[in-house]
Amino acid sequence: FNDAAKTCWGVNPMDLVAFNTRGVAAVHTNVCSVNVFAVIGAVVGLAGTLSAAADDCAATLIPNVDALCAQSVMGLAMAVAGTGGAATLMNSACRGNGWYHDIPPGLVPS
């Protein structure tokens, strides 16, 4: 949450889905995007863990199908969030003109 709060300051939400930006603004926007996907993955992962706990900690041998279903859906959503962050990084790393090349010298991580 801290990294997303620091790196997303001043980023226009519409820029998160624009893939034609260049320069320092593109670096700022893409780092924000990776951090947002990380936050989404963490929150959804927490929801999946709580769903698993609802089933595992029940005082019955009968499985809680609703909790298991919720856990499965949250796992899928967490995988999709991870894919979004990975796609942002691959967009830069796998191209010769990706935004990694626009990172100014001396820029430090949040």
Please provide a written account of the structure:
62% of the residues lie in helices and 0% in strands. With 110 residues, the protein is mainly alpha-helical.
Brief write-up:
This protein is an all-alpha fold and 110 residues long.
How are the SSEs ordered, and which strands pair?
Elements: H1 2-7, H2 24-56, H3 65-93
Low-confidence parts: none
The termini sit apart by 12 Å
What structural category characterises the helix and strand content? mainly alpha
Order of helices and strands: HHH
Query: Any idea what the radius of gyration is?
Result: 18 Å
- Tally the helices: what do you get? 3
Shape: elongated
Query: Count of DSSP E strands?
Result: 0
Strand percentage lies at under 5%
- Look at the structure and give the mean pLDDT: 80
Q: Quick one: biggest sheet? A: none
Helix proportion: 55-70%
